[in-house]
């Protein structure tokens, strides 16, 4: 048993180092996707935004506890953003990745905080997105995107 302890410690140490490396890679990948996505939104390019999703992606927008929008598939997501851009001259999007993990090979789960300004109300809209992405053809694409918007009481 005493001989196994150093081996076990070495395995634990390597595993922790590998996990930290994977987490760093996950954060880097998530930040890269979030930056490109924000750039596409800020350029008002619905097709470029939709290209960040796999063809059969799901994007669900939840305000409080109510689903207020559901887009199934890349074409539906592009349509959502075309409608959003039509009614608004400029919608600057800013986001910050708060956590990211590689949950399986080529599968990334990440959470980000976002803020959208330039809305007709003059008030910024803030929320969180919880996203699962898949690495396909050498780039990360969103498979599911849950957009969470808090609702203020009153």
List keywords for this structure.
globular, Nuclear Transport Factor 2, Chain: A, 154 residues, disordered N terminus
Break the fold down into its secondary structure elements and pairings.
Elements: H1 4-42, H2 46-50, E1 53-63, E2 66-72, H3 74-86, E3 93-104, E4 107-116, E5 125-136, E6 139-149
Parallel strand pairs: 1-6
Antiparallel strand pairs: 1-2, 3-4, 4-5, 5-6
Q: What would you note in describing this structure?
A:
- The protein is an alpha+beta fold and 154 residues long.
- The protein has one domain: Nuclear Transport Factor 2, Chain: A, CATH 3.10.450.
- It contains three helices and six strands; from the N terminus they run ααββαββββ.
- It has helices spanning 4-42, 46-50, 74-86, and strands spanning 53-63, 66-72, 93-104, 107-116, 125-136, 139-149.
- Strands 2-1-6-5-4-3 form a six-stranded mixed β-sheet.
- β1 and β2 form a beta hairpin.
The CATH architecture would be: Roll
Residue share in β-strands: 35-45%
Individual helix count? 3
Query: Order of strands side by side in the largest beta sheet?
Result: 2-1-6-5-4-3
Helices and strands, in order, run as: HHEEHEEEE
Coarse morphology: globular
Low-confidence stretches: 1-21
Total of domains: 1
Q: Indicate the structural class.
A: alpha+beta
What is the CATH first-level class name? Alpha Beta
Average residue-wise pLDDT: 84
State the share of residues found in helices, binned by percent.
Answer: 25-40%
Q: Would you count the extended β strands for me?
A: 6
The CATH topology name reads Nuclear Transport Factor 2, Chain: A
Radius of gyration, in angstroms, nearest whole number: 19 Å
The biggest beta sheet is recorded as:
6 strands, mixed
Through-space gap between termini: 64 Å
